[in-house]
C-alpha cells in the first residue's frame, strides 16, 4: 500500500509501506520526485529517515517499488513497463515490453510471481507473470477498470481495486472474482502477513475501509 509522507522533506514522496519491513537491514524502499521536473526515482533509506540513497537515475519516472519478501529484489514501474533490480540498485532488467501502460507491480510472498495492472486491452486489467517475466496471463476481463493488485501470503488469492469502486478478490488463476466491499472510494489495497485465503482474512483499502479484518506489512 502506498502512502504520502511530506514531513520527510521530499517532494511527492510515495512510500511502499508494504515493503518497509522486508529489508534485512530494516531499510525502506520508496519513490520520490525531488526535482522541479517531477521525475521520480526509486530510493532507499533507513527506518529513521536517514541514509537516503537513490537506486535509479533521475532520467524518467521510476515509481511504485515493491520489495520481495526476502529483501533481495525490487520490482517497480518505469517507462510504462515493469522492471526488476537487485535491492542495491544493480542488475536492472525489464520484465514487460508493451506499448500499453503497465504499472502497480506486487510480489507474491514466495517471490515466484508478480501481479500488475496493464492497459493492453485498452483499459486497466490485472495480469500476473513469473518473476523472470515469462508466463504472462491476463486475469480480469470486465469492462471496468481493475488496478493495484496484492497477493495473499499463501499465494492463492489476489486482491485488487475493481468495478463499482469496490475491493475485489479472486483466485490467483483469475477464477472466482467477487467484491468484498460496497464502495471504498480509494485506490490502495494491501494484505496482512498473517492473512490467508479464507473468508476470515481480507484486505484493507487506503481509505481504511475494511473488507473484514486486515492490513499487510511484509515481515522478513
Task: Describe the overall structure.
The chain has one domain (2-205): 6 Propeller (Neuraminidase), CATH 2.120.10. It contains one helix and 19 strands. Strand 4 and strand 5 (53-54) form a beta hairpin. The protein has 220 residues and is an all-beta fold. The protein is globular, with a radius of gyration of 16 Å. The strands form five sheets. The protein has a five-stranded antiparallel β-sheet with strand order 1-2-3-4-5. The chain has one helix spanning 17-20, and strands spanning 2-4, 14-16, 28-33, 40-45, 53-54, 62-67, 73-78, 81-86, 93-94, 102-107, 113-118, 125-130, 137-138, 147-151, 157-162, 166-171, 178-179, 189-190, 204-205.
Give a quick set of tags describing it:
Neuraminidase; mainly beta; single chain; disordered N terminus; 220 residues
Please provide a brief summary of the model:
This protein has one helix spanning 17-20; strands at residues 2-4, 14-16, 28-33, 40-45, 53-54, 62-67, 73-78, 81-86, 93-94, 102-107, 113-118, 125-130, 137-138, 147-151, 157-162, 166-171, 178-179, 189-190, 204-205.
Helices and strands in order, then pairings?
Layout: E1 2-4, E2 14-16, H1 17-20, E3 28-33, E4 40-45, E5 53-54, E6 62-67, E7 73-78, E8 81-86, E9 93-94, E10 102-107, E11 113-118, E12 125-130, E13 137-138, E14 147-151, E15 157-162, E16 166-171, E17 178-179, E18 189-190, E19 204-205
Antiparallel strand pairs: 1-2, 2-3, 3-4, 4-5, 6-7, 7-8, 8-9, 10-11, 11-12, 12-13, 14-15, 15-16, 16-17, 18-19
Per the principal axes of the C-alpha atoms, what is the gross shape? Answer: globular
Determine the N-to-C terminus distance.
17 Å
By secondary-structure content and strand pairing, the structural class works out as mainly beta
What series of H and E elements makes up the topology? EEHEEEEEEEEEEEEEEEEE
Q: Give the count of helical stretches.
A: 1
DSSP strand content:
35-45%
User: How many domain modules?
Assistant: 1
Question: Which CATH class?
Answer: Mainly Beta
CATH topology: Neuraminidase
- Point out poorly predicted stretches: 1-22, 197-220
Number of strands: 19
Radius of gyration: 16 Å
Q: What would you give as the CATH superfamily?
A: TolB, C-terminal domain
Largest sheet descriptor: 5 strands, antiparallel
Just name the CATH architecture: 6 Propeller
Indicate the multimeric state. Answer: single chain
Mean pLDDT over all positions: 79
Helix content: under 10%
Amino acid at each position: 500500500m502506498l502512502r504520502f509522507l511530506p514531513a520527510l522533506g521530499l517532494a511527492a514522496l510515495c512510500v511502499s509501506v508494504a515493503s518497509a519491513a522486508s529489508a534485512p537491514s530494516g531499510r525502506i524502499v520508496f519513490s520520490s520526485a525531488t526535482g522541479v521536473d517531477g521525475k521520480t526515482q526509486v530510493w532507499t533509506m533507513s527506518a529513521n529517515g536517514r541514509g537516503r540513497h537513490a537506486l535509479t537515475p533521475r532520467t524518467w519516472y521510476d515509481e511504485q517499488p515493491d520489495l520481495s519478501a526476502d529483501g533481495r529484489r525490487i520490482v517497480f514501474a518505469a517507462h510504462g513497463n515493469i522492471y526488476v533490480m537487485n535491492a542495491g540498485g544493480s542488475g536492472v532488467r525489464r520484465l514487460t515490453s508493451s506499448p500499453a501502460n503497465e504499472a502497480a507491480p506486487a510480489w507474491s510472498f514466495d517471490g515466484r510471481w508478480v501481479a500488475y495492472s496493464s492497459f493492453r486491452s485498452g483499459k486497466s486489467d490485472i495480469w500476473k507473470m513469473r518473476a523472470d517475466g515469462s508466463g504472462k496471463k491476463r486475469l480480469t476481463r470486465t469492462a471496468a477498470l481493475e488496478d493495484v493488485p496484492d497477493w495473499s501470503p499463501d499465494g492463492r488469492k489476489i486482491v485488487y481495486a475493481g468495478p463499482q469502486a469496490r475491493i475485489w478478490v479472486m483466485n490467483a488463476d483469475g477464477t472466482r472474482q467477487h467484491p468484498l466491499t460496497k464502495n471504498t472510494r480509494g485506490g490502495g489495497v494491501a494484505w496482512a502477513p498473517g492473512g490467508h485465503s479464507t473468508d476470515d482474512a481480507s484486505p484493507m483499502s487506503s481509505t481504511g475501509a475494511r473488507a473484514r479484518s486486515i492490513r499487510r506489512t511484509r515481515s522478513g
